[in-house]
Structure formats: structure tokens, C-alpha cells
Amino acid sequence: MDRYNGVGYNEFLRISPEIKIAWIMGRRSFQIEKRAKDMNIGYLVQSCAGKNDGFGKILKETGFKTSETIYMGDDIIRLAGLSVLLWMLAKK
User: Fold this and answer.
1) Is the pLDDT of residue 79 over 90?
2) Are 71 and 81 in contact (CB under 8 A)?
3) Which among 10, 30, 58, 67 is placed 20 to 30 Å from 19, CA to CA?
4) How many CB atoms lie within 10 A of CB 16?
5) Which of left, alpha, beta for 47 (phi over 0: left; psi -120 to 50: alpha)?
6) d(CA 58, CA 15)
7) Is a pLDDT exceeding 90 seen at residue 75?
8) Full set of structural domains in the chain with CATH
């Protein structure tokens, strides 16, 4: 990592402190836990059977509604989670 790593993200959190970030991981990693802590990630779910399970856990813990969330994935496999989120929003 260089000295600019995370600068944009940290500035985003500074000007938008009301926005909470969550990471949902299918596996467990000490490095991910450390990175999440370093980046002030609000919620970290690891070792979940599926992204939807992790998403449901976060909603239950926080009291957020699906309509108060956005979803972002980093590859094509993550589209399954997006389709479930869109379905949940459409039901409302």
C-alpha cells in the first residue's frame, strides 16, 4: 500500500458520516478483518453461506430496510445477490 491508499474512501466517510459500509464475505480471513477495521467498515459478515444470508443478518442487526441500502459487487458472480435485493425491493 502507498500513502494514497484509501484517501478517496476516507474523504467520502468524512463528508458522509451517516453512510454505513458493510462487507459480506463467504470465507473468513484475518487480513480482511484487519483491513475492515483499518478502513472503518461498519459491518463485516464472514463465513456466511451466501451473500443473501449475510445481507439478512445485517438488516436484522441494524434495523435497516432494504429500501435504505445499495448493493455493489466486484464481479459477475455477485449479480445473484443484486437480483435478490432488487426482488426484495420490488415486493415493497
Assistant:
1) no
2) yes
3) 30
4) 9
5) left
6) 23
7) no
8) 21-91 (3.40.50.1000)
Residue 87 has pLDDT above 60, yes or no: no
Classify 43 in phi/psi space as left (phi over 0), alpha (psi -120 to 50) or beta: beta
Q: Hey, how many other C-beta atoms are within 10 angstroms of the C-beta on 26?
A: 14
User: In whole numbers, what is the pLDDT of the chain averaged over residues?
Assistant: 78
Angle between helices 79-91 and 51-62 (to 10 degrees): 50
The DSSP H or E segment spanning 49 is none
Strand, coil or helix: 64? coil
The letter for the amino acid at 24 is I
Tens-place pLDDT, residues 22-57? 888 888 999 999 988 988 888 899 998 877 888 888
Q: What residue spans of 1-92 are helical by DSSP H?
A: 7-15, 30-38, 51-62, 79-91
Q: Which three cell numbers stand for residue 25?
A: 464475505
Q: What pTM does this model have? A: 0.68
